[in-house]
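User: Here's a protein and a ligand (zinc ion). What would the complex look like?
Assistant: Let me lay out the input and then the predicted complex.
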Amino acid sequence: MINSQLINTAFFTNKHDDWDPDEGPFLINNKKYKIITMDQTHSEIITTVNSFKNKYKSDGLYTEKNGKILCVKTADCIPILISTKKGIAVIHAGWRGLSKGILKSFFDCYEYSAVDTKVTIGPHARTCCYEVTKEMSEVFPAYVYKKNTAYYLDMSLFVRDYLNKVNIKFEDTGVCTICDEDYHSYRRDGTNKRQYSFICL
Ligand SMILES: [Zn+2]
């Protein structure tokens, strides 16, 4: 499990953690938390959570309600955890979600102040390993590297550039799910298993 250095209520599991978000409620620091997960579809939809419901058909969740854990499940997509002055959010960002504008869905539509907002970026497929087709490389021409005849996509840089543009403080765990065998990777193993990234309020 990786604890965020920037947000003390944000965590990323790896494949050795036996943490199951479908169980619970969870006791963290003697406080009982209910867990909220998503039915993720690579969309740009972010849902505001006011009451407990599991699951939301969404690729992002935001809440200002105490006692909630928001959870995102990923293998090679990017888990993004956000803490603002008033609330918390999770985002499931793969190349499809990023190309549809899921970052804008949060940063253009939700109220936050850059000074009080922190973001942590979890383990995902990185440019060292994330080979893409020529067609896919054309979706993000500025974020693709060509090695010999192969194209590699740098989704991490796309997210970091976006966060720099909106002036948000962030950290990145630096882990690549494809080359680090401690993590589930759909690309490497074709697995249906996922990491869980979660943030509590
Ligand atoms: Zn790698």
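Summary: The domain at 2-124+155-200 is CATH 3.60.140.10 (CNF1/YfiH-like putative cysteine hydrolases).
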